[in-house]
Amino acid sequence: MANRHPARSARTRESGNPHNPGAVLQTWPVQSETAALRTEKKTVLIFAAHNVFGAGQNPAPNQSFGGNMLSTQTKRTTCIGDHLFIVEGAKHWALYDLKEETLISIDLDSGELLWALAQEASPSEEKLVFLTKHAEAIMELAEQSGIADRLFLPDTSSAEAIPLLEYLWLEVTDQCNHKCIHCYGDFCIRLKNFMKLEVAKRILSQARAMGCQWVQFVGGEPFMHRQLWEMIEYAVELGFPDIEIFTNLTLLKEEDINRIKAYNIHIATTLLGHNAEVHDACTQIPGSFNRWYRNIKKIQALGIDFRIGVVRMQQNENDMEEIEAFLRREDLLVADEEFEPDDVRPTGRGCNNAVEPRAPLQYDFFFTVTPQFFHQARKSNPCWRGEMAVSAEGKVFPCVFSRQTTFGDANQDGITPAVQTLQQQCWVITLDNVDRCRDCEYRYACMDCRELSISSGHGLHGRQPRCQYDPYSDE
């Protein structure tokens, strides 16, 4: 059930990362002369500037290491050592240790001091002596956090070069044999749009030429398209490293499953209930659960790579424990893999109030603290960057959920102009451009979803509604 999507796979929780247990959010507890602000959730380093510099005197602005210690409206980011960066927020700073994939929360005064030291051209040894003499608590805690030997050294972290286009959703048809009550695309059996084979081949060829690594064939239900396998085989010929089919599994034949195995194709599917009563009520197709179960077990038996998404809505929100138990009992969710349902997206039929869960899911903080993610997040949107979706009608969207605005016509122009438009209008939206997020110290470790902001009425640059963290809080 783990999301194989490369852009989302290495997620770090505040309490730890199931993919990398070392990636955690830490705080610096303070002893002796410094004061500590203690809450139920965390302990944050707090001390006044006059305690840092000693004798109640701050250095004058023109003194070495002093600088201007006043906060500015523009939230700052700077390197303070090898694989070490600090990012300013409204009430706190965050120290990003990109080597150990760790976040450390620090207070404003500590951040100001480290920022000022980082701006000085003095040798690193002098800065360490200064910390030892005037801010012993910071130095001790840096040693406890395992970063002291890298403080103020030249940074060697870097991000690998990435393709212009990384991920492509190819909606080969809008026709579907299900009538799922939450469907983001309003897909159903009455729709008759099928992507032409030559159009699909041109899109695939152009995408691969741009370095695209991942393509998902999706619908509607992709197995409604009679030429689906010709499209997939062409993607195989082009050398796409990661090919996935998103399917409800109900139309698969033995021949299809054998081909999936032969071509090493990945499967993505959705489970809406732990039994036929719940699942079929959501798909509105009797027998859909039994057909789904029969084919997922065949796929499992052949060792085909698969992932299962669970969409949480009003009709199944009270069944999450039973769904998780079912998945684990059937070995469809392995022991060390977390159960991560996703609330229905408010788009398409998902906008219906009768589908929206009565109690929204409370999401944990997810952080990714790697050189690749950090450096990329400072320049581009952590979700949309490098992604595009093409509908059966040739319309180009930033992703399969964001369907309000069209950014190109693949039937007429191919995808090259659309990629340029997406790059200029969507991919460049960093969290520095987003309300509230721009004041958050974790903005370069956090995943984003512009579509959730748009569909929830907050606009293109509005806050992501599922985030519960308040950067303006003293806690």
TrEMBL record:
What are the recorded GO MF terms, alphabetically?
A: catalytic activity; iron-sulfur cluster binding; metal ion binding
Q: Report the transmembrane regions from the record.
A: none
Looking up PROSITE patterns in the UniProt record yields:
RADICAL_SAM (PS51918)
Q: Where is this region: Disordered?
A: 1-26
One Pfam family from the record: Radical_SAM
Q: Which ranges carry the Radical SAM core domain?
A: 162-378
InterPro entries tied to this protein: Aldolase_TIM, Radical_SAM_PqqE_MftC-like, rSAM, rSAM_sf
Stretches assigned to coiled coil:
none
Q: Enumerate the UniProt keywords alphabetically.
A: Iron, Iron-sulfur, Metal-binding, S-adenosyl-L-methionine
Biased-composition ranges, Basic residues, are: 1-10
Q: Name it.
A: Radical SAM core domain-containing protein
Q: Identify the species of origin.
A: Candidatus Brennerbacteria bacterium RIFOXYD1_FULL_41_16
